[in-house]
Structure to design on (673 residues):
């Protein structure tokens, strides 16, 4: 325990005395401050805060990702290359303690640095009263299920090109799944569309004084800026929409009568034009949650956890490889993980007829799949939209990214460290 | 007879390049024993494999073949490392730590509680005459000062076996004498010491037993008191004084 603490302490001292940590604090606060003037906003408080979150805090986060990867890849590698690691290794210290202590130090320093801009964000919001909202989506079958249902009909359809029919089942299912995600539903004039939100009825009984809102993103097949007019009803709550398409509208719902026992939210189109929306993405029920400051805090936990994961990954790479190679591999992995999924999705040859394409795409997908559970939560867009970053998601990110994955990576580092002496 | 503290049996080390082609046979079939309480000198010309042997003993390098035991345990066993102090041939220090922090760091790695660590740190700083500069970062230390910090940190865990790789390199004559006195005092207290050196006069003063290493093999081994001639003559006879022809050609 004492030795673990000392290894932790040494790494923290190194980060502080090499000016790495102080410079990062100054740079983060400086950017948060400068962002107030540099970023162009729509001059409303909300718009300003949104930009400050996405580009102010987002910029700091990107800076910290780079800094964490750069210092974590050097944590073991530079000690080994300067032979100082030998002096630790001849002491009664396990290789795991070395890797874990260094990881904890990097993660703690990264988390401490990140705390400054997050605090600055709360202060600059003037401790606003505005609350964030829990976001609920309608209960629908998963895109995968829908794809499986579409498959037979799609293959039997004479309009489906023979080229497509030759492609593998997995490839076609992937295309259909993507289609299901983007599946549009059309609501014509005087028609009503409805969606189920499980638990909504119970919730409204438990919180009789709280009024929810609904958030819609309407599209229109013909005209980018058509008018939408409609009525929303949900379990005794009502609201009216009057807007133009192509923007997200948040409609406050007001209680008119009690006693309807169902979990359904419906939209009735009373305008002159048919409107379209993708129920999997464009219909949300918003329920007031707690304050902006709490939401910043939960986002902070999630972001610090992501940084911790990167630190553990960097320490591992630096143990296995020389410092420059480790740094290179770290950044290449970061780019592949960040850009891989969108490259794979937007790849023009969706039929994957070339062997080499199939190979490349499956590599990118595999890497994406590996990186998915840890990086699934990216809190900044939610924070910017005043959507609640749920506590259970933040805790989940902490458990996986800050604890489980680093333990596994530190065990791997320890195994490699013992081999590499 | 008591089990030797360090025991090497037919130990070899071949360094290999990236393609695993052998480059140097640094140690070749070496048998070596260090017994409790003795000061053992591993002598030999540059590149004869002294440091390599030591690193294998400490578990920092894996031998290509042969068997090594330290306190009857494999060298990477934690229990063996707990009784060990090591001074490497160059003083690798963390430049941003002060002398006192360096010692506290290594005390922590030996799991010494803070109070004991403080006490020993103060004693050792006094002993290596660095108390005045204890609060300065070691990155700014001279070679000899750094050497003394490294020596003190090797001693912080009160080891049973002290391994010194050229302890006097970079030290001035006075400090060299002090280190020699120190080693003798430690040996008298019962500490086992393994030291390497090319400074034969120094080794002659402190070592009970020496082994002369040449090209990774043991050229001779024996008690210093039983040599009958000076260690230097003995050494040159075993290792060869080399020839001066190349120098003569160059100067011609
Ligand atoms: N990491 C290494 N990779 C390749 N060769 C090495 C390595 N370490 C040592 N050697 C080689 O092994 C041989 C023995 O080296 P070693 O450092 O053990 O010698 P030494 O006896 O300590 O010499 P010196 O008195 O100069 O310190 C040398 O030929 C050296 O080049
Ligand atoms: Mg040497």
């Amino acid at each position: 325990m004492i030795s673990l603490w000392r290894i932790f302490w040494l790494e923290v001292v190194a980060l502080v005395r090499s000016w790495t940590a102080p410079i990062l604090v100054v740079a983060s606060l400086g950017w948060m401050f400068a962002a107030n003037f540099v970023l162009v906003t729509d001059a409303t408080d909300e718009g300003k805060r949104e930009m400050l979150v996405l580009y102010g805090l987002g910029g700091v986060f990107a800076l910290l990702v780079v800094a964490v990867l750069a210092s974590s890849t050097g944590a073991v590698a530079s000690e080994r290359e300067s032979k100082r690691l030998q002096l630790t290794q001849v002491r009664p210290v396990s290789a795991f303690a070395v890797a874990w202590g260094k990881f904890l130090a990097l993660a703690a320093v990264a988390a401490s640095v990140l705390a400054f801009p997050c605090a600055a964000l709360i202060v600059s919001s003037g401790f606003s009263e505005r609350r964030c909202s829990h976001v609920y989506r309608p209960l629908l079958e998963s895109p995968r299920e829908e794809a499986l249902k579409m498959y037979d009909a799609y293959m039997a359809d004479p309009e489906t090109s023979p080229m497509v029919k030759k492609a593998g089942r997995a490839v076609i299912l992937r295309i259909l799944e993507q289609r299901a995600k983007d599946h549009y539903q059309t609501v014509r004039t005087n028609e009503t569309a409805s969606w189920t939100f499980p638990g909504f009825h119970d919730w409204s009984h438990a919180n009789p004084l709280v009024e929810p809102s609904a958030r819609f993103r309407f599209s229109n097949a013909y005209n980018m800026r058509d008018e939408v007019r409609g009525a929303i009803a949900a379990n005794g709550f009502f609201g009216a929409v009057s807007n133009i398409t192509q923007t997200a509208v948040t409609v406050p719902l007001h209680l008119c009568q009690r006693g309807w026992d169902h979990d359904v939210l419906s939209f009735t189109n009373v305008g002159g034009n048919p409107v379209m929306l993708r129920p999997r993405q464009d219909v949300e029920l918003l329920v007031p949650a707690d304050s902006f400051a709490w939401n910043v805090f939960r986002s902070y936990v999630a972001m610090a956890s992501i940084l911790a994961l990167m630190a553990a990954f960097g320490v591992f790479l630096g143990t296995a490889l020389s410092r420059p190679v480790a740094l290179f591999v770290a950044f290449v992995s970061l780019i592949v993980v960040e850009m891989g999924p969108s490259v794979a999705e937007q790849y023009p040859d969706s039929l994957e007829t070339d062997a080499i394409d199939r190979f490349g795409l499956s590599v990118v997908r595999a890497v994406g799949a590996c990186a998915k559970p840890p990086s699934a939560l990216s809190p900044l867009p939610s924070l910017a939209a005043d959507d609640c970053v749920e506590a259970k998601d933040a805790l989940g990110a902490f458990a996986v990214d800050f604890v489980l994955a680093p333990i596994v990576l530190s065990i791997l580092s320890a195994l490699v460290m013992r081999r590499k002496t | 007879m008591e089990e030797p503290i360090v025991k090497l049996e037919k130990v070899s080390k071949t360094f290999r390049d990236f393609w695993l082609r052998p480059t140097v046979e640094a140690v070749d079939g070496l048998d070596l024993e260090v017994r409790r309480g003795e000061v053992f000198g591993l002598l030999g010309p540059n590149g004869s494999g002294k440091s390599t042997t030591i690193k294998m003993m400490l578990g920092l390098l894996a031998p290509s073949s042969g068997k090594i035991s330290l306190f009857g345990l494999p060298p990477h066993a934690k229990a063996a490392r707990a009784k060990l102090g090591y001074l490497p041939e160059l003083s690798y220090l963390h430049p941003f730590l002060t002398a006192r922090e360096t010692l506290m760091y290594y005390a922590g790695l030996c799991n010494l509680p803070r109070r004991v660590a403080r006490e020993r740190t103060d004693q050792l700083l006094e002993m290596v005459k660095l108390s005045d500069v204890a609060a300065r970062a070691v990155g700014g230390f001279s070679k000899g000062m750094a050497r003394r910090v490294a020596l003190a940190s090797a001693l912080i865990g009160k080891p049973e076996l002290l391994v010194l790789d050229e302890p006097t390199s970079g030290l001035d004559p006075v400090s060299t004498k002090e280190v020699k006195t120190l080693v003798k005092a430690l040996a008298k207290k019962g500490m086992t010491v393994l030291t390497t050196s090319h400074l034969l006069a120094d080794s002659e003063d402190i070592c009970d037993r020496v082994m002369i290493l040449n090209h990774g093999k043991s050229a001779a081994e024996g008690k210093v008191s039983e040599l009958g001639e000076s260690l230097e003559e003995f050494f040159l006879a075993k290792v060869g004084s080399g020839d001066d022809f190349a120098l003569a050609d160059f100067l011609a």
Notes: Residues 93-158 of chain B form one domain. The CA atoms of residues 14 and 145 of chain B lie 34 Å apart.
